[in-house]
Amino acid sequence: MKRKALLAILSLVMILLLVACPDKKIIDDEEPCTEYTVEVLKPEGEGTVTPGPDTYTHQEGEILELEAEPEEGWEFVKWIVTVDGEKQEYKDPVLELTVVGDMTIKAVFEEEEPGVHTLTINIEGQGDVEKDPDKALYSDGEIVELTAIPESGWDFIEWSGDLTAWDTTVDITMDGDKEVTAVFAAETYAISVVIYGEGRVEKDPEPPYTYGDIVELTAIPEPGWEFTEWGAHLSGSDNPQFFTVYHSSEVFAYFDEIEPDE
After folding, report:
1. Dist. CA 8–CA 16, nearest whole Å
2. What is the SS3 assignment for 22?
3. b/e map of 26-56 (b: 16 or more CB within 10 Å)?
4. In three state form, how does the secondary structure of 113-163 look?
5. Could you tell me which residues come within 8 angstroms of residue 92 by beta carbon, excluding any fewer than 6 positions away?
6. How many helices (H) and strands (E) are present in the chain, helices listed first?
7. Residue 80: closest CA among 108, 100, 42, 52
8. How far apart are the C-alpha atoms of 73 and 115, rounded to whole Å?
9. Which of 21, 40, 75, 92 is close enough to 33 for a disulfide, judged by CB 3.0 to 4.6 Å?
10. Distance between CA atoms of 21 and 25, rounded to whole angstroms?
11. What 3-state DSSP class applies to 2?
C-alpha cells in the first residue's frame, strides 16, 4: 500500500515538472527549470511595444511573443535581441522567441522620409513645356507651375493626362507621381488671291496650309489676256511661282489685255 502511494506521489511530481518546463525532458536526477531575466527596453524612435518596457522573469524554454507598433510618421525597422551577450536582429514586427538565457530586447523605429514624386511631361505636336521649379523629384504637396510654349506655326490646345486645363500656364500639386501631356496643333493659313484683269490662279496643293508649307501658284490668263506680274505678298513675274507659307497671306495676280495686231 505504501509503495502504491509513493508511486502516485512521484507521478504527480513528474507531471508538475513537465507542466512547469514543457521543453525539458525530466529524468530522475535532473535539476529544476532555470529561470532567466528578460528585459524589454524602451524603443528607439517613436513607437510602442507589447509587452511594454520592463524586466520580466521567464523559465527556460518558454515562448515569448512581442509586437511593435510605430507611431504615425514612423516605421518599424528591426528588433535587436541580445542573449548572453550575443546580438541578433529580426525584421518582423511580430516576434516570437524561445527563452534560452538572459535576454534584452529593443525595438527600433525610424521616421518615414517625406514622399517624393516624379513629373513626366509628354508633348503632342510641336512645342515645349517649362517647369518651375524644374527638377527630377518633387516633395509631397509641392506646387509646380507649367507653361506651354508652342513652336512657330503651332497653337497650344490643352493639357491632358493627370491635368485637364486649357490655359497655357497652370499649376499642378504633386500629391503623387504625375504624367501630363501638352497638346499642340498646327495653325492653318489661307492664301487669298486678288485678280486684276482677266484670268485665274491655281494653287497646288489646295488649302488649308500650315506653317512652312510650299505652294505652287500658277497664273492662267483668259484668252486675249496675258499674265504680267505678282503683287502684295509675292513679287516677280515668274509663272508658276513658289510661295512659302508663314501666315495667312494675300497675293495679287496682274493680267493685261493683249492688244490686237494692226
Report:
1. 13
2. coil
3. eeeeeeebeebebebeebeeebebeeeeeee
4. CCCEECEEEEEECCEEEEEECCCCCEECCEEEEEEEEECCCEEEEEEEECC
5. none
6. 1, 24
7. 108
8. 11
9. 21
10. 8
11. helix
Q: Residue 251 CB: number of other CB atoms within 10 A?
A: 22
**Strand partners of residue 127:** 150
pTM for the complete prediction?
0.47
Contact 84, 144 (CB under 8 A): no
Residue identified by cell 513607437 is 47
| Mean pLDDT per 10-residue section of the chain, whose length is 262 residues | 44 43 43 86 94 94 94 90 92 93 94 85 96 92 96 93 96 94 93 95 92 94 95 94 92 93 66
CA pair distance 211, 152, nearest whole angstrom = 7
Answer whether 215's CB lies under 8 Å from 243's CB: yes
Single-letter residue type at 260: P
Q: Residue 31 has what pLDDT?
A: 58
Q: Within 10 A of 182 (CB to CB), how many other CB atoms are there?
A: 25
Q: What is the structure's pLDDT at 260?
A: 80
Residue 85, sorted as left (phi over 0), alpha (psi -120 to 50) or beta, turns out to be left
Question: Which residue in the block uniquely carries the three cell numbers 527600433?
Answer: 108
In contact, 81 and 97? CB cutoff 8 Å: yes
Residue with cell 548572453: 84
Find the helix or strand (DSSP H, E) in which 11 lies: helix 2-20
Query: How many other C-beta atoms are found inside a 10 Å radius of the C-beta of residue 202?
Result: 12
Residue 30 pLDDT: 52
